């Protein structure tokens, strides 16, 4: 485990770059602009699909919306390594952002026409599928820009900063919607917001042009010419078996993210149908945005605490603590399903979840050679997003339309408890602490 001092002069430590190049700020600018835009795009999409007066959501419809968003991650993920381990990741990221920008122009037109059918779903799938290439490429390239001893902090900055920008983007989108409500009505507001988002993705593509062709990899001597798609993803799984702690950490991260998805569905339904008048969807959207904002603050603080926890307890023990710590809040939320208790629970689940995620990202990045890193993250993405979809499906089968349930928060707590005690138990999880590339 690295002995770096957590967040002691964070700026200087993060900027301690390999070979003296200052590419990390350029990578962060691409990632954060894209994720700021993600938040605005997703808020407009949620407003159109789930928070329109004529569209009353139940648990199944909400879960279906989540599945539509997440399905491309599982379909594109196995093939991401084909591009990211063979071609310039800078070019892949740049072209993917341009594709996403043009795709949103089509989505804006469809929303302006009031389309809610398969055609809209198809183009939304493209938007989120392309996003998978971008985030996986930036994650795979990050270890080439910083020294290994600051990798946890670099992940905290990149991943958590991105998550916070998603929240900010969502807030900006909702704020613009409320402002435009006084100027115009109907689906034209959501279409206009998506046009703005298209401009954001175009700007991210411009930012990507500042990166060098091979600055975020892959390195020339590590480029493979074989292309096997799902076979490559399975190869990533077999590589990870040599690093059992990284593999167990990926599965634990999946469990944690699946629980967050279920909790998000609880928040969406309860804010839409219980905590606010069902005939006032704008109030429900504002309440949901407020809950996400508080969770986003928890995510930021959790990332900040991550390197401290790793330095004090060690990487493996801190991940176990992060997995187990939120269970008590989930139990109390099941017993007292108030809006305050839901937001408090979201704060701690988001915070400890982000701490787990950035620590495990650094664990995976530090142990895998760059020539394999694209396919490793392809497996990582598919495994985690499969768990997220599973969490949405289980929530849909369990939750009433009100969103109020004793069962669901306790199921999340039980899954976290089992993951912490079985997947991350010391005798197995820490046994691989000295494994290398």
Automatic annotation (TrEMBL):
Protein's membrane topology: Multi-pass membrane protein
Membrane among keywords: yes
InterPro entries (UniProt xref): MFS_dom, MFS_trans_sf
Domain Major facilitator superfamily (MFS) profile: 193-437
Transmembrane segments: 62-83, 95-112, 118-138, 150-172, 192-211, 289-311, 376-397, 403-424
Gene3D superfamilies: MFS general substrate transporter like domains
GO terms of molecular function: transmembrane transporter activity
Protein's cellular compartments: Cell membrane
Coiled-coil region list: none
Alphabetized UniProt keyword annotations: Cell membrane, Membrane, Transmembrane, Transmembrane helix
GO cellular component entries: plasma membrane
PANTHER family: INTEGRAL MEMBRANE EFFLUX PROTEIN-RELATED, MEMBRANE PROTEIN
Protein name: Unannotated protein
Species in which this protein is naturally found: freshwater metagenome
């Amino acid at each position: 485990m690295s002995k770096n001092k957590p967040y002691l002069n964070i700026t200087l430590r993060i900027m301690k770059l390999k070979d003296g190049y200052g590419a990390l700020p350029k990578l962060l600018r691409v990632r954060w602009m894209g994720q700021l835009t993600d938040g605005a795009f997703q808020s407009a999409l949620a407003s159109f699909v789930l928070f329109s007066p004529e569209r009353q959501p139940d648990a199944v419809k909400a879960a279906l919306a989540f599945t539509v968003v997440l399905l491309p991650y599982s379909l594109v993920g196995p093939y991401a390594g084909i591009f990211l381990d063979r071609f310039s990741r800078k070019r892949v990221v740049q072209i993917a952002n341009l594709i996403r920008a043009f795709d949103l122009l089509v989505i804006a037109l469809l929303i302006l026409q009031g389309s809610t059918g398969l055609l809209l779903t198809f183009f939304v799938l493209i938007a989120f599928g392309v996003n998978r290439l971008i985030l996986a490429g930036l994650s795979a390239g990050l270890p080439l820009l910083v020294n290994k001893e600051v990798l946890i902090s670099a992940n905290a900055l990149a991943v958590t900063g991105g998550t916070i920008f998603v929240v900010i983007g969502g807030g900006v989108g909702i704020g613009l919607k409320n402002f435009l409500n006084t100027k115009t009505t109907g689906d034209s507001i959501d279409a206009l917001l998506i046009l703005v988002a298209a401009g954001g993705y175009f700007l991210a593509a411009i930012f990507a042009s500042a990166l060098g062709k091979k600055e975020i990899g892959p390195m020339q001597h590590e480029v493979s010419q074989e292309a096997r798609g799902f076979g490559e993803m399975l190869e990533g799984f077999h590589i990870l078996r040599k690093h059992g702690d990284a593999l167990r950490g990926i599965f634990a991260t999946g469990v944690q993210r699946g629980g967050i998805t279920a909790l998000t569905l609880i928040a969406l339904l309860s804010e839409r149908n219980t905590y606010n008048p069902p005939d006032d969807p704008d109030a429900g959207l504002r309440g949901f945005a407020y809950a996400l904002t508080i969770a986003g603050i928890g995510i930021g603080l959790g990332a900040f605490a991550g390197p401290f926890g790793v330095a004090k307890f060690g990487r493996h023990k801190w991940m176990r603590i992060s997995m187990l710590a939120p269970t008590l809040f989930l139990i109390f939320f099941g017993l007292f399903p108030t809006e305050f208790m839901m937001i408090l629970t979201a704060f701690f689940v988001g915070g400890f979840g982000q701490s787990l995620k950035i620590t495990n990202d650094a664990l995976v990045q530090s142990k895998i050679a760059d020539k394999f890193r694209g396919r490793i993250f392809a497996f990582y993405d598919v495994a985690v997003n499969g768990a997220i979809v599973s969490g949405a499906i289980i929530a849909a089968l369990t939750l009433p339309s009100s969103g109020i349930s004793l069962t669901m928060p306790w199921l999340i707590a039980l899954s976290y408890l089992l993951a912490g005690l079985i997947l991350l138990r010391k005798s197995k999880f820490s046994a691989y602490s000295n494994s290398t590339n």
